[in-house]
Amino acid sequence: MCGIIGYIGKKDAIPLVLNGLKNLEYRGYDSAGIGAIVNGELIVKKDVGKIDEVFSKINISSIGSNITIGHTRWATHGKVTKENAHPHTDCKNEIAIVHNGIIENYQELKKELISKGHVLKSETDSEIIAHLIEEEMKQRNFEDAFKKAIEKLKGSYAIVAINKNEKEMMGARKESPLVVGVSEDGYFIASDVPSFLDETKRVIYLYDGDVVVINNEIKIFNKGVEVKREIDSIEWDAEQAKKGVFKHFMLKEISEQAEVVKKAIMQDEKIIKEIVNAIKNAKGVYFVGCGTAYHACLEGSYIFSKVAKTHVNVCYAHEFPNYVHFLTPESLVIAISQSGETADTLAAIRAAKEKGAKVMSIVNVAGSTLVRESDKVLLQHAGPEICVLSTKSYTSQLTILVMLAYALVDKLDEAKSKLKELIRYIYYLTSKNTQEYIKKLAEKLKDARDIYLIGRDLQYPTALEAALKIKEVSYIHAEGFAGGELKHGNIALIEKGTPCIIFTSKENEEGIIANASELKARGAYVIGVGPRNSEVFDFFIKVRGAEEANSIVQIIPIQILAYQLAILRGLDPDRPRNLAKSVTVK
Ligand code: F6R
C-alpha cells in the first residue's frame, strides 16, 4: 500500500524520484522520504505529511545524485512518525531501503539482530531489512548480502535498497508489486508504472520471488538462478495519468466514463468467446473481488441471471477460503480487480488454483500479478485510475459483465449496440450541467449524519456501491440496503429529515416506490434516482432506463454527489483518510 521508487542512471535522480513519488501518492500519504547517494555519502530526508508538505520543508534542489530511492507511506507497523517514515538505514547509515508489504517474522529477526549489537531506530518491520543486509555484508558483497537477507524474510515485500559505497541498486518482490522502468539514460524500480511514465513507457514486470540487480547492466534472478524477463511497452501515456484541466483525479476519472465504456466494449471477441465457453462448461462459477470490484461481482451475478439464466456464486475475495472446499478442477473462478494487485483477491485465486480450478479475470492494469496468474484475462483498457476511489473502473467492469452475459446467449452484438447507445448519454450524465444540478443536492446533504441508499434487484448492488462512494470520500455514514430488507430492521434508523436515496427502474417501480413511501411516512427526505419522477420524492435525479445496464448509468450521479460532498466538507477527494489505492496487504 506504500509507494516506492528508485532511480539509477545518468540523469539527476532526485527530481525524478520526487516526481515519481507524486505520481505514486495514491498508494499512501502518511509520510514520505528519499535516500540519495551524493558524492559517496548517503543523505536521507524524511518526515510526516503529504509529499509536498514534506519536501517543501527540505531544501533538496541543490543536491545532485545519480542513485536515489523514495517512499510514500501508508502505515501498517508503527505510528505515523518521522522515525517510522522510510527510507530506513543500517547502524552505520551506509545502506538505505524502502519497503512495501509486511515482514511477518520481523520480531524474531529483530531479536536476533539486537543480540548481534544492532541498534534499531524505528517501530517498523521494514527497518530490519537494512540491518539484515548490513549483517550479511560482514561476509559478502552488497549484491550477495541483499540476496541472503531477502531469503530470511517471511511475508510480503517489494524492496529497493542502495549502499553509499556501491553504484548499484537492488530490488526484490514477493506478493507486492514491483516493476522496472527502462529509459534511455537509466533504470527505475517502482511499485507502479505511473511513477515513471513521464520518462519511459518501457517496462519489465517482475515476477514473484524476483531479485533485480542494477549497476552497469540489469540482471534478474529467481530462486538463485538468472532469468530473462521481456521488456513490455505501456499503452498508457503520461498525460492520461495527470489531472489536466481537472481539479481532482476523482472528477477527471468520473468524467472519462463515456470513453471508458467505449473502450471496454472493444474487447477481443475471441477471448470473450473463450471465457463464455469456460463458463458454460464449468461446474460452478465464482465471482470474487473486494470493495467496488465486489459490487461489480454482485451486480454481474444479477445480470447473468437476468440475461443468461446462468447462476454464479459471488464472494468477497477475503471470504473465499470458506468456499474452496467446493472447488474442483471443473470450477471456474472469475476475479475482478482494477489494480490486479489486491492481496485478498490474489490469495483467493491462488487458493482456487491449488484446487485445480480455472482462473479468469477482468482487470484494468496490464502486467499486474492477477493478469500474470490468470488462465485468461479481459483487460478493461480504462487507463490509469489514480484517485483512491474506484469510479471509471467500476462502470468499465459492469460494461464487460453485460457483454459476457449477452455473449452467453449468443447476443454479443446486441449488447454492444445497447452499450454504444449509452455512450452519448454518459457524456450528458458527467457534464457540467449534471454536476451543477447535483451540487444543489450536495448542499442539502453536506451536514447529514447518515445517508441511506436503497435499491431492489439490479439496483441493490448499485445502492451498496453508492453508499461506499459517499462514505469513503465524505466520511458521512452511508449504508446501502435492499428495499425488501427495510422492514426487517433498518427502517428503525429513519428519523425526521434522514436522507434516503432510492434507485428505481421500470421493472421494480412498484416495490421500490412502496419502500420510498414507507420511508417518507417516517419523515425521511427522499431522493429518487431513476427514469420516472414520483410525488414521493423530495428531490429527483432523472436517469434514463437502461435495463441490465441501469447500474452503469445510475451510479454516475452518486459518484458526482460523493465528490461534491467531499468538496463542500473541505476534504481532498483524491486522498481520503486512512485509505490507499492498492490494498497489497491482507
Ligand atoms: C473503493 C475502492 C476499493 C477497491 C478495492 C479493490 O472506491 O477503490 O474498495 O475497489 O480495494 O481494489 P481492486 O479493484 O484494485 O482489486
Strand content: 15-25%
Question: What structural class do the secondary elements suggest?
Answer: alpha/beta
Radius of gyration: 25 Å
Report low-confidence residues grouped into runs of 5 or more: none
Determine the mean pLDDT. 94
Give the domain tally.
3
Could you name the CATH topology of the largest domain?
A: Glutamine Phosphoribosylpyrophosphate, subunit 1, domain 1
Tell me the number of strands: 25
Strand order of the largest sheet: 3-2-4-1-10-9-11-15
Number of helices: 17
Shape descriptor: globular
CATH A-level architecture of the largest domain: 4-Layer Sandwich
| Helix content percent band | 25-40%
Q: Output the CATH class name of the largest domain.
A: Alpha Beta
Distance between the termini: 10 Å
The set of bound ligands, ions and cofactors reads: fructose -6-phosphate
CATH homologous superfamily assignment of the largest domain: Aminohydrolase, N-terminal nucleophile (Ntn) domain
Describe the structure.
- α4 (127-136) crosses α5 (142-151).
- The protein has three domains: 3-240, 4-Layer Sandwich (Glutamine Phosphoribosylpyrophosphate, subunit 1, domain 1), CATH 3.60.20; 244-430, Rossmann fold; 431-586, Glucose-6-phosphate isomerase like protein, domain 1 (Rossmann fold).
- Strands 3-2-4-1-10-9-11-15 form an eight-stranded antiparallel sheet.
- The chain contains 17 helices and 25 strands.
- The mean pLDDT is 94.
- A hairpin with a 2-residue loop joins β2 (31-38) and β3.
- The chain is an alpha/beta fold and 586 residues long.
- Helices cover 35% and strands 23% of the residues.
- The structure holds fructose -6-phosphate.
- Fructose -6-phosphate (F6R) is lined by residues 290-293, 337-339, 342, 345, 389-390, 468, 472, 582-583.
